[in-house]
Amino acid sequence: MTAVSAPTGQWPLLRAETLAKTYHTPAGAHEAVRDVTFDVHAGEVVSIVGPSGAGKTTLLRILAGLLAPTSGRVLLSGVPVEGPPQGAALVFQDYSRSLLPWLSVLGNVTLPLRSARVPRAEAADRARQALASVGLEGKEKLRPRELSGGMQQRVSIARALAYQPRLLLMDEPFASVDAQTRMDLEDLVLPLREQYGMTIVTVTHDIDEAVYLSDRVVVLSPPPSTVSAVVDIPLPAPRSQTATKEDPRFGRLRHRVLDLVRRPEPAAPATTQERILNR
Ligand SMILES: Nc1ncnc2c1ncn2[C@@H]1O[C@H](COP(=O)(O)OP(=O)(O)OP(=O)(O)O)[C@@H](O)[C@H]1O
């Protein structure tokens, strides 16, 4: 983990600055990301959406310090990210590969804490609290295979929470579960943001999910990607699967983001957003 020093000046929590990524393979160079810049402010939920192959996972891996950009940089509180930064946790789509099958639920959640040299009793305490906050109290001794897919993804989320991150990065976190569980997990995450004081950046294919969860949605162009638009989502909190999704503003924002993903256009000025909402 890279140590991150105290914030300097008025930096956003996270800045993606002119990021580009070209992969070099035996078949030749592949430019996945051309020029991506956006900010994420403390406490926000920001979703990254875009057409298939637009480099969403590539970007998330760069933000997480797992992949070096070809050019550009990531700043966390103004400090360049040059490896997995302290205070950031990642949740992957594929819970079946991210949980260790031979460890108990509690063992899976405490493992990264023990690796970070958190004392055993404190690690167990934090893990139990995180498991309780995702509704898995009493499941600590089970093995992952004894849980449903949705419950296994809750364990992955608990593992990230127990780390007490200020930044939670999620790559298609709910893509591998059924629709009902997906809604349950979406509704789990928003209160956790408050409870743990986190900032969340998530990649998703699901436009409804992006609009439902987010304060802002970053829309990527087709590859090699640039930012087509950053759409503000000024829907009231708390969000609700019924009331929010029946709100005509939700429908208009969803329509807007979908249009941008399908037919990218230059970023809309802020006033356009207001016009969309008041139309
Ligand atoms: N390790 C790699 N080596 C070479 N090319 C890669 C590598 N990882 C990704 N790519 C290529 O980069 C492009 C962007 O991939 P990425 O997975 O980031 O896109 P994505 O937007 O997340 O895709 P999807 O929407 O299909 O999940 C794709 O063309 C992919 O084939």
TrEMBL record:
CDD domains (alphabetical): ABC_NrtD_SsuB_transporters
Keywords: ATP-binding, Nucleotide-binding, Transport
Entries under Pfam families matching the protein: ABC_tran
Residues making up the signal peptide according to the UniProt record: none
Domain annotation ABC transporter: ranges: 14-247
Recorded GO MF terms: ATP binding; ATP hydrolysis activity
Top-level lineage group: Bacteria
Entries under Gene3D superfamilies matching the protein: P-loop containing nucleotide triphosphate hydrolases
SUPFAM superfamilies documented for this protein: P-loop containing nucleoside triphosphate hydrolases
Xref: InterPro entries: AAA+_ATPase (IPR003593), ABC_transporter-like_ATP-bd (IPR003439), ABC_transporter-like_CS (IPR017871), ABC_transporter_ATP-bind (IPR050166), P-loop_NTPase (IPR027417)
Protein known as: NitT/TauT family transport system ATP-binding protein
